[in-house]
Write a structure and sequence with these properties.
The chain is of the alpha/beta class. It contains eleven helices and nine strands. The strands form two sheets. The protein has a seven-stranded mixed beta sheet. Strands 1-8 form a two-stranded antiparallel sheet. β2, α2 and β3 form a beta-alpha-beta unit. The chain starts with 10 loop residues before the first strand and ends with a helix. The structure holds S-adenosylmethionine. The site of S-adenosylmethionine has 23 residues, from β1.
Length: about 270
């Protein structure tokens, strides 16, 4: 079977790393685990030893047939030959209960996958994912660092995140062009900060980062199409220096800012 580049098929060949990734999921007796992109089963092998049930989703039909044969004696594997982006999480969780999610992600679909995990976080207590190192840096960044970004904020609004370890390209066949990191995402029962309107919050965050090198006053007024004088008043009201750069604002500050800007946006665009 020739690895398919179009499906990000870089198979993990480092068995110690595979075990370490599975160990990081803290699997308890009775847990059901969902694996994203099972490939040839590098992680599946260890999951089947630990979890009550492993639901392995793999888009490639040939790999599914391979997995079926490889693990034919295991009765705790449910194989689903489907695009993970088309899975009905509510339905699956309804049948299986809470799902711990693991995967050496197909890097091409990292973004939509993270959005899906966030949307379905009520069914997912915990997730351990291998992502591109650069993406891991952004997900786990702290305010004030160059990697603090809308991605850090959207994930950390709903989860505690941690980088566990890094892997070189030589741990895979074929070797990808990028370095990889394994991250742990523990979803919170409630958002880190109370936010009345999450869409507005995200709009404000994206607008603030729209022009990264600009000060927050200029990027907000340009991207939200609001007069500078009004935006400056709001920033002063919530005690944020209008000259600060967007990457220095915390999630709490973005929350205060978006709720204050909500009234102004209503006035201008009602
Ligand atoms: N877990 C295996 C490992 O660690 O060796 C394979 C990891 S490989 C980076 C990604 C896997 O995801 C491939 O087997 C690929 O066929 C599968 N895949 C790619 N896109 C997918 C999708 N949309 N839905 C489900 N699986 C997908």
């Amino acid at each position: 079977m020739r690895p398919k580049k179009s499906l990000s098929q870089n198979f993990l060949t480092n068995d110690r790393a595979a075990k370490r990734i599975v160990d990081s999921l803290d699997i308890q007796e009775g847990d059901t685990v969902l694996e994203i992109g099972a490939g040839k089963g590098a992680l599946t092998k260890y999951l089947l030893e630990k979890a009550k049930k492993t639901v392995a989703v793999e888009i490639d039909k040939k790999l599914c047939q391979y997995l079926e044969q490889r693990f034919t004696e295991k009765n705790n594997l449910v194989l689903i030959n489907k695009d993970i982006l088309k899975i009905d999480w509510g339905n699956l969780a309804g049948k299986m209960g809470h799902l711990k999610v693991i995967g050496n992600l197909p890097y091409r679909i990292t973004s939509p996958l993270l959005s899906l995990l966030l949307e379905n976080r009520e069914f997912i207590p915990l997730s351990v994912l291998m992502v591109q190192k650069e993406v891991a840096k952004r997900i786990c960044a702290q305010p004030g660092s160059k990697d603090w970004s809308p991605l850090s904020i959207t994930v950390q609004l709903h989860a505690d995140v941690k980088t566990l370890f890094h892997l070189r390209p030589t741990s895979f066949y074929p070797s990808p062009k990028v370095e990889s990191s394994v991250i742990k995402i523990v979803f919170l029962k409630r958002p880190r900060v109370f936010i009345a309107d999450e869409n507005l919050f995200l709009l404000v965050v994206r607008s603030a980062f729209g022009q990264r090198r600009k000060i927050i006053l200029n990027s907000l007024s340009a991207n939200l199409n609001l007069p500078k004088t009004e935006v400056e008043l709001i920033l002063n009201k919530v005690k944020i220096d209008p000259k600060r750069r967007p990457e220095t604002l915390s999630i709490q500050e973005f929350a205060k800012l978006s709720s204050a800007l909500g009234n102004l946006l209503n006035c201008f665009f009602a």
